[in-house]
């Protein structure tokens, strides 16, 4: 899907009283998820176990 089409769909899915901050946040989150999905498809993702190991020192 093209970027402009995706942006339109994201905006259209928001409530009519959405603020500009709401719109920017929704577009940002959508972009980040898309990039993450792309990385996973390309084999560049990080497994859940790897993340847990990396964050373990911060969670103690």
Protein model, in words:
- With 60 residues, the protein is mostly helical.
- It has one domain.
- It is 75% helix and 0% strand.
- The protein has helices at residues 3-13, 20-41, 48-59.
- It starts with a helix and ends with a helix.
Descriptive key words:
mainly alpha, 60 residues
Give the CA-CA distance, first to last residue: 42 Å
Shape: flat
Contiguous helical run count: 3
What fraction, in percent, of the residue positions are helical? Answer: over 70%
Helix and strand pattern:
HHH
Radius of gyration: 16 Å
How many strands appear in the DSSP assignment? 0
* Biggest sheet record: none
Integer count of domains: 1
Mean pLDDT: 93
Low-confidence stretches: none
Tell me the strand percentage band.
under 5%
Structural class call reads: mainly alpha
List the helices and strands and how they pair.
Blueprint: H1 3-13, H2 20-41, H3 48-59
Give a nutshell description of this structure:
The chain is mainly alpha-helical and 60 residues long. The protein has helices spanning 3-13, 20-41, 48-59.
């Amino acid at each position: 899907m093209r970027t402009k089409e995706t942006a339109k769909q994201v905006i259209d899915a928001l409530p009519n009283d959405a603020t500009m901050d709401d719109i920017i946040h929704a577009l940002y989150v959508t972009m980040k998820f898309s990039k993450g999905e792309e990385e996973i498809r390309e084999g560049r993702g990080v497994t859940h176990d790897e993340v847990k190991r990396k964050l373990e020192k911060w969670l103690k």
